[in-house]
Amino acid sequence: MSHTGRPAEPDKRTLRREFLTVRDRLTADDVRSSATALAGRALELPELARAGTVAAYVSVGSEPGTLALLDALRARGVRVLLPALLPDNDLDWGAYTGQDCLERVRHGGKMALFEPGGERLGPDAVTGADVVLLPGLAVDARGMRLGRGGGSYDRVLARLERAAAHPALVVLLYDSEVVPRVPEEPHDRPVHAVVTPSGVRRFI
Question: Can the keyword Metal-binding be found in this entry's annotation (predicted)?
Fold first, then answer.
C-alpha cells in the first residue's frame, strides 16, 4: 500500500518486465500476422495519408512489426526516416530506401537494432516529420506511453518541443498493451493515437 492507503502503483521497471514477458511468448506467426494487420490499420490514418515525411523505426524481436508499414509508406511516395542510436542514447536519423539499406548494429550488450545505411541527417532531422511513429510497451487511457526506459524518445519529444514542431505522435502496440493507466513522470508527454492490429484509438 502507498502512504495514502491506496494500493501502490507498480513502478515502470516492473511493468516493463511484465509486458516484455507477454511479448516473449508470441510466436513468429503471431508477430507476422499482427504486423500485417497493424500496417493496414495505420495506413487508414488521415495523418499518414497527408504525411510527406514520417519518422519511424524498424521493429526487432517480438515488437509489433513495422517493415510492412515502412514499405507501404515508401510505395506511397512518403519520405521515411529511421533512427540510428548514438553513444549517449540520443537518436540520429537516416532515410529508409528499402529493406536492403538496413544494417544490423549491436550497441554494447543491448539487443541488435536495424539502422539505415548511408548518410546521417542529424538528430534535428526528426523536427521536419509530419508524423512520428513511436515504439513502446503500453499506452494508457490518457495517451501516456510506457517506453523501454532508454530515454531516446524522451529526447526526441523534448527536441520537437524546443523546435516548436507538432507532428502527430502515434504509438504502435498490441491490443493487450492498451491499459487503464501507466505511471508517468513530469517529462512524459501524451501521444495523439495508438494503432493496434484491431484498430485505432485517439487521445488528443
Answer: yes
